[in-house]
Amino acid sequence: MRPIFSRREVLKGIAATGAAIMLERNLSFAENAQKMLIERKIPSTGEKLPVVGLGSWQQFDVGNDSIERNPLKEVLSRMHELGGKVIDASPMYGRAEEVIGDLTNELKMNDHFFLATKVWTTGKEQGIMQMNDSLRKMKRSKIDLMQIHNLQDWQTHLTTLKSWKEQGKVKYIGITHYTDSAHARLEQIVKSKAVDFVQFNYSIRSRNAEKSLLNAAKDNGVAVIINEPFEQGALFRAVKGKELPEWAADYDIKSWAQFFLKFILSNEAVTCVIPGTSDAKHLVDNISAGTGKLPDAAGRKKMLSWIQTV
Question: CATH number of the domain that 54 lies in?
């Protein structure tokens, strides 16, 4: 059973007998989802974040056409209804920052979201110019999280970001990468305690981060954002046509997306995972992975054994 009705279904219901009941039920689902959504603390402050957020690479790189933007507007609206907060962007993602800023502003929800973006250039002045441009595009005077994208000129930008944090232009600072080969360098920076967040790749089949990076983040009080949770769709291709194992229901898993996301979230070092989507139904499915029971050690073992068979 889906956790929330679509907007189209609600509108149809309004035109039919029992419309008020359907609408009330829809609102009830949204309210309950917010209450059930698991949150974890940012170690450096204790602020809590919902464990499932939204990535914007490719999906939010669209033009001004309402045909392209309306589905994204629906995604953001649903995310708000369900209690989601973290939206991750970057200047590398084309028009994503601008689209996020425009749509959250139109929806009057910009301040609700925890907006994260990145600096992706070389040189101090170029970095400052790019970050100021990101603030303008995202309709903010202060960004929740500014990250150094893929370690590019990270020492230069880290100095700037520490100053910006003192000035109140950024709330948190972080560093990111998306490949296993960068994990050792990320771990060194994490251990220096120079950042509040670290973002990297991790999935049920790509588990290099388990060797030491995840534990290093946990031990040094650094929040963790996970990218590439679906391996750019490779995980869905691997399970195409296959049924969920019956025991998946023991962990409130109702879809393959939830199977993959709940495995990641079952590692307590993970603060938030950011699957990208431009589809409201997929957004609801992803957010639902942050509710209910998470796999314990036995469950993780079953999941790992099962995925090795495909």
Answer: 3.20.20.100
Q: Looking at residue 36, what is its pLDDT?
A: 87
Task: Report how many domains make up the chain.
Answer: 2
Q: Is the same domain home to 92 and 173?
A: yes
pLDDT at 182 (0 to 100): 98
Q: Identify the domain containing residue 26 by its residue range.
A: 1-36
State whether 21 and 107 are in the same domain: no
pLDDT score for 91: 97
Q: Does 113 share its domain with 255?
A: yes
Low-confidence ranges of the chain (pLDDT < 50): 1-29
Q: Which residue, among 275, 265, 263, 282, has the nearest Cα to 86 in the 3D structure?
A: 275
Report which of 156, 154, 172, 175 is spatially closest to residue 164, judged by C-alpha positions: 172
Cβ within 8 Å of residue 259, ≥6 positions away:
204, 244, 248, 253, 303
Distance, in Å, from the CA atom of 157 to the CA atom of 95, rounded to the nearest integer, reads 22
